[in-house]
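Subgroup meeting minutes
Present: P.N., E.W., G.H.
Scribe: E.W.

1. P.N. recapped why we're keeping a running log of single-chain structure predictions: easier to compare across weeks, and new members can see raw inputs and outputs side by side.
2. G.H. added today's entry (479 aa).
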Amino acid sequence: MDVLGRADLLAAHQCERRAWLQHQPPVSAATPPIYPRADDRDAVRDAARRRYPGGTRVPNHLPVAERLAQTWAHLNDVRVPSIYDATFESGGVVVRAAILARAAGGFVVVEARSANSVGEAHELDVAAVAWVAERSGVPIVGRVLLHMDSEYVRTGALDEAALFVAVNVPARSFADAEAALAARTRPTEPDIAPGSQCSRPRECPFRSHCTPGEIGAYSVARLPRAGRLLQELRELGISDVRQIPADLRMSPSQRHAVWSLTHGQEYLGQGLAPALANVGWPLRFLDFEACQPAVPRWEGTSPFQQIPTQWSMHVQHRDGRIEHAEFLHTEDSDSRAAFVQSLVAAAGTEGSILVYSNYEATTLRSLRDRLPEWWSDLEGLVNRIVDLLPIVRDHYYHPDLHGSFSIKATLPAICPGLDYADLAIADGASAAQAWLRMIRPELSTEERLGIRSALLAYCARDTFAMLRIRDALVARAGG
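Output recorded in log:
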C-alpha cells in the first residue's frame, strides 16, 4: 500500500501542484538540522498528555498495520480514557493523533502546539487528523487545539491546566485533496499558476521552483521590505527594477537598492561615514543568544520567555588590538543572574557597545526590570549601545544582499570570503534548540562538549562579523 501521511493530505489541500512536487521534488530533500527541535516539542507533548492522564500509548515505531490494530483495541476498551499517538488510515492516508480522549458519544482529537497563539495552519492540522479518523469509522465528537498561555507564570510545580489554552476547532472536509493526491503520480507537473495559495495556510517549500523568474539580477523581488511594494509593482506589470517609475513611492532603503541593482554596484550614502564615526573607544561588539522554552522550566518564567544563555564580545582598541571574551551557561538552571554578572564585569564602563539589531538592548531592559539589583549597571550598558543595523540599512546597499539586511547576508556581501557556512550551528533558532539539548542530563560528555564548542563558535562569529563589517564600511566610506 502506498502510504501517505498528514503532510501529504495538507499539501494536496493547499495546491495540487504542491502535492505533485512533494511526491516528485525538483531538488533533493534538505539535510535535517544537526540539532532538532525535538527537545522542546517533547516537553509540550508530555505536558499536554498530563492533562489527559491514564492514557495508553501506541508505539509509533511499529509497522502501520500493528499501530492500527493496537489503536482499535484501545478504542474498544472502555477502561482506556485516552490514547496517545492513536493511528488511523483512510484512502491510503495514515495519520496519528497526539491525544485521542474518550468522551460522551465518541472521541475528541487533541493536538498541542508549541506556540502562544494558533492560526489556520494549526487548525488544519487537527482537522485533518479528525477527518481521517472519522472516515476510518471512529466517532469524532470534538477537535481541540492546545496552545501555550503567554500569561502563565510558573510558580512551584508546573500547572498543566493553566499552562494551555484550549481552542475548539470546527470540522473540515479534505475531500478536495483526494483528487490532488490521486494525480500526484501523473507523468507531468500540473500547470497551476502561483497565487495566494503559495503562502496560505503555510509557505510552500516549492515556491522558488514555481517562480524562477523572481530571482533575476534586476528582479523587483530583490528589494528590501517590499511586501506591499511588490504587490503594487505586479499590478503595474513591473518585474524589473529598471522599469520602476521615478515618482513611485518607496522607502530610502528601497531607492538605494534600486540604484545598486540598476548600476550593479554597492551604494554608499553620504551619511555612512559620520554614522560609523559616532562611537567611543574601545569598541565592544556584543551578541546574545537565548533559549525560549515553550514549557517554562524555572520559577518565575513564562512560555517562550527569552532567557539569555550566552554572550560574546570582541573588543577593538583604537591601536588595532582585538580581544575576545565570552560566557555560556551550561547548567539546567535559570541563567540570568550569572549572565548579567559576567557581562557587567566584561563590559566595563568605557567604550561603545556595538550590536546588530535591537535585540540586545531589549534583552538588557528586560533583565534590568527583572533583576532590580542590577538596574544601574544594565541601564548603563543600554545607554552605550550603538546599533549597526539601521546604519547599514539607511546608508548602504549591495546587490548580493538580495533584499535582506541580516548579518548572515551582510557579512559575505561586504566581506567576500567570510560567512557562516563552516559552522555546525549557524542561526539563533538552532542555537536555542542546541542549548536545550546540551543541558539534558542523559547526554554523553562528548556530545555535550561538541554542542558547547559549536555554540561558542557561532556566537563569536556574530561579534567578529560585526567588527569586520564595520572595518570594511569605514574603509569604503573613506574613514
